[in-house]
Design goal:
This protein is of the alpha+beta class. The protein folds into 2 domains: 51 residues; 67 residues, Roll (Nuclear Transport Factor 2, Chain: A), CATH 3.10.450.40. Helices cover 32% and strands 23% of the residues. The longest helix is centred in the N-terminal third of the chain and has 21 residues.
Length: 160
């Protein structure tokens, strides 16, 4: 019988959080333009086949409808490819200036808002006391740095 080995459940090394690791950079939304250009090429090809090769038994009206639909998706890709100019550090700085208290524990999350899939930072901030007296929820536009929404309140949590 083999030696009993204690099995420890742990994350793989590449997923383990480390304070000495490099900063992670969120991919920019303008990468959506790549898909937009691919959709334009496929849509134009499909539309062209539907219009210019309609006499062929292999091509029908579906190519025209499909090409038009794909071009609409391409248009959406270009509308939704707003460049992210504000990173989470800058979003924290903007939010801290806006909330009016010294910030302690905080977290940031990138999200997308509305039909245009506009990139925004969603921030949760607590004041810097040992038991935070205030907390705030702030949404910062990731392309312009404008504060979209802000909610500040006394912290109702009891951390005793």
């Amino acid at each position: 019988m083999e030696d009993d080995v204690e099995v420890i459940d742990e994350l793989p090394e590449d997923l383990t959080a480390s304070f000495s690791s490099d900063l992670y950079e969120i991919p920019n939304n303008d990468r959506r333009r790549i898909a937009g250009f691919l959709y334009v090429a496929i849509g134009v090809l499909s539309l062209g086949l539907g219009v210019f090769a309609s006499a062929s038994p292999l091509v029908n009206d579906g190519f025209v409808y499909g090409g038009t639909g794909i071009l609409c998706v391409a248009l959406y890709c270009f509308v939704a490819s707003v460049t992210t100019k504000i990173d989470e550090t800058e979003a924290f700085e903007l939010a801290i200036q806006d909330v009016g208290f010294t910030t302690g524990p905080a977290s940031a999350q990138m999200m997308w808002r509305g039909w245009g899939s506009k990139p925004v930072w969603r921030l949760l901030l607590y004041s810097a006391e040992t038991q935070p007296l205030h907390r705030a929820f702030v949404i910062v536009d990731a392309s312009s740095g404008q504060i979209i929404e802000r909610f500040v309140e006394d912290n109702p949590e009891d951390w005793n």
